Structures are given as structure tokens and as C-alpha cells.
Amino acid sequence: MIAVVGLLLGILAGLLLEPAVPEPLQPYLPIAVVAALDAVFGGLRAFLDGIFDDKVFVVSFVSNVLIAALIVYLGDQLGVGGQLSTGVIVVLGIRIFSNVAAIRRHLFHA
Amino acid sequence: MPEPARSRLARAFVARPGRGQLVVAVLLASLGFAAALQIRLTNTDGDFSGQRRQDLVALLDSLSSATDRTESRIDELEEARDKLLTSSQRRQAALEQGRSELDVLAILSGTVAATGPGITVTVTDPDGSVLAASMLNGIEELRDAGAEAIEVNDQVRVVASTSFTEVADQIVVDDVTLLPPYVIDAIGSPQTLSEAMVFPGGFSDEVEELGGAVSVEQLDVVRVDSLHEVEEPEYSQPTDR
Fold first, then answer.
1. From the CA of B3, how many Å to the nearest CA of chain A?
2. What end-to-end distance do the CA atoms of chain A give, in Å?
3. Quick check: is B193 in a domain?
4. Which of A28, A66, A85, B142 fits as disulfide partner to B147, beta carbons 3.0 to 4.6 Å?
């Protein structure tokens, strides 16, 4: 319950406060968001599997975001930032889809 | 046997939040914050400040090549326009030249009425002794003095093919019999034309010897109204220039 409230609060804060994103971080924000989404769906799946652990969730969330940003940063330095961020998005997308499929199986038995 | 997933989810919603839920809430809040931020950034970012240098360079390349293509297209079209313009100007000039040539030729061939400064020569001939040869001399003097259009008695236009003959002591010009007094209208420089009529031993003296009289009147406006009908040449054809 409080998790959903936190999500809504975050969205509201982002919409209302309109803070400026620091220029160097701008390319990494979308990748970080997708990576965090992956961690969230993974956590939800683990919760439904009955093996959810908040420490694991925090670590996976933070590491997902950091590693995704790091990969894209590295790609930018190597001159393949565009391709690499596409690759990261694809991999995270596949993971999100498989996690959502598992969640669906849990909730709807289908 | 673990409890069913659905009921665990439902219970988590109503249960008193523990430390774990709080941590998850904080992380989810940060996710929602970042997502909302990014969405707003994507929607409002009209400029290219958030884009990668590589993408910007590619964008710039495609833009500049598009510019090149458009510019070369503009050049082509301008060239075509200039070509069309000069050709239409040339046609216009040719048309104007043709028109002025038409005017010249029409006056020379006597197919249009003409007006302008000139003289009127009146030849009285009480004895009936002024004949075609004298008349032709007078016309020749006028031509020599640069007369551009000549008519006789307001009846006959004198052109290149005009004939002067006599039938029963009467002058016949292009099948028209002339009766005295003979009135010759000529367009040209009035001064030059009248001098050509009256110089010693010229037309005037010749007519006076035959018993007639010549009076010359210089006018600012002389009208030559009679027309000459041009016939299609039957035998002659223009040769290639």
C-alpha cells in the first residue's frame, strides 16, 4: 500500500516541482528509468514468488540503475553511445517482458 | 505450500507497512520522480540540448546535405527561368522588329494609308500637253528627294510597280485615267521635296515649257489615303538568303 503511495508521490513531485536535470546527466536519465522499471518488475515477481527480500530489492534497484548508466556512459566515451543505449534498452525490455509474463501467470494463472 | 500469490498481494495492501515496504516506497518514489521528469523533459524539449553529440552531428550532416540538394535544385530552376526569360525576350524583340519592318514594308508597298509632313504639288495643264513622260520625271524627282509615299490626284498610290502610260493624250497611271489639274501628294522632308520640284531645269521648268504651271505647297501634315493592291508574285520566288 505504502509502496503505491510512494510511487504516486514521486510522480506528483516530478510533475509539480519541475526541477532542472543537470546537463551531463540528461542522456542517462531515460536509461536509468528503464533499468529501475526492470528492478521494480523483478521485485514484484519475487514478491509473488514469495521470495521477496527488501535488501535484495534495494541492491538490485540501485545496481541496475548504476550499471545501466555506466554502460551508456562508457558507450558515449567509446563513441558508440547511441548503439549501446539501444542495446541496454533491448535487454531491459526483454527482462521486463519475461518478468511481467511471470507476474501474469501468478495473478491470472494464465 | 506457500500461500497463493494473489492473497499475499491483497494482504500486503492492507497490512501495516513494515521497514521493507518503506524502503520499497522510497525507491518507487524516486522512480516515479525520475520517470515524470524524463517524460516532461521529452515533451517540452524543443531544442537539442539533451541529445548526444553523435546524434547531433548526424542530424547536422543530413540537414546540410538536404540544404545542398535544395540549393542545387534552386540553381537549376533559376537557370531554367533565365533561359525561358531570355527566349521570351528574344521572341518579343523579334516580334517588335517584325512589326516595324511590317510598317516600313506596308508604307513602301502602299497597302496602308500614310500621313506625315510633305508637299502637295499641283500641276495645271490648260493645253493638255503634259504627258506621262513629264509626269514620270516629276515622280522620279520626288523619289530621288526621298519621298516615302506618293499619290496622284488622291486616286492612285505610286509604288515600285506603278506604270505611267498614255491613252489618247491622257495620262493613265495603273489603269486609272488622270484628268488635269494633276495633284501629287508626297510624304518626306518638305524642304527637300519642294527644292526637287523647282530647281532650274527641273520638273517645274519642264512643265512651264509645255505651257503648264507648277505650284508647290509645303505642309506639316499630308495624308496619302489611296491604297495599292499587292498581288501575289506569280513567277518570282525569294531565294535563300
1. 8
2. 25
3. yes
4. B142
If you measure CA to CA, which chain B residue comes closest to A65?
B31
CB contact under 8 A, B37 and A7: no
The ipTM value here is: 0.79
CATH code, domain with B185: 3.30.70.1880
B96, B197: one domain: no
Measured between beta carbons, the chain B residues lying within 8 angstroms of A63 are none
pLDDT in tens, B178-216: 887 888 899 998 888 888 888 888 888 888 888 888 888
pTM reported for the whole predicted model: 0.47
Whose CA is closest to B217, among B239, B240, B184?
A: B184
- List pLDDT tens digits, range B136-163: 888 888 888 888 888 888 888 888 888 8
Closest chain B C-alpha to A15 CA, distance in angstroms: 6
**B59 and B155 part of one domain:** no
Helices A54-78 and A29-49 sit at what angle, rounded to 10 degrees?
Answer: 150
In angstroms, the CA A94 to CA A88 distance is 10
